[in-house]
Amino acid sequence: MSNPRQSLMRRLRLMRILVAAFVLCGLTLSFADFTGAIASNLKWLARIQFMPAVLALSLWTIAAILALTFLFGRVYCSLVCPLGILQDLFFFFGRLFGVRQSAAAPGSRAVFNVVRGALLLVFLAGGFLGLHFQWLEPYAIYSRFASVVVSPLARMGNNALAEWAARNSSYAFHAVECVAPAMAVVVASAGLAAIAAALAVWRGRVWCNTVCPVGTMLAGAARVALVKPKIDGEACVKCGMCARACKGRCIDVEKGRIDLTRCVACFDCGAVCGKGAISWSK
Question: The whole model's pTM is what?
Answer without folding.
Answer: 0.88
